[in-house]
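Milestone M4 deliverable, item 7.
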Amino acid sequence: MELKGEVTSGLGKGKYYMSKEVYQEAFDEKIGFRPFPGTLNLEVDEDSREDFEQEEETLEIREVYEDGERLSNVDITPCKIKGVECGLLRLEFTEHEDDIAEVIAPVELREKFNLEDGDKIVLKI
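Output delivered:
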């Protein structure tokens, strides 16, 4: 399956959460890499939204705590962007609209592929 979208700026919170050691360890265990501290945000194209809303095979991160605070549960769908292993996130707690996909990778995807807001990208799931 392919998910198409347009790169868009996020809220800056992905960097904060992806920098947390507790998440770094959990992602490494579940998906096999420590993510770059940040997410690539995509506004999912209209023709891909139905696929985006469907639950694909997911890996789960549950009951994550830091300093007594329970952090968001996360479902991760393994995917690739131009051959780079990534993870499509579905977060229990999010401030994004339903048409925004958050993607993690072991590298900074914007830098690796010279991406700017408005660029089109395809996730292969």
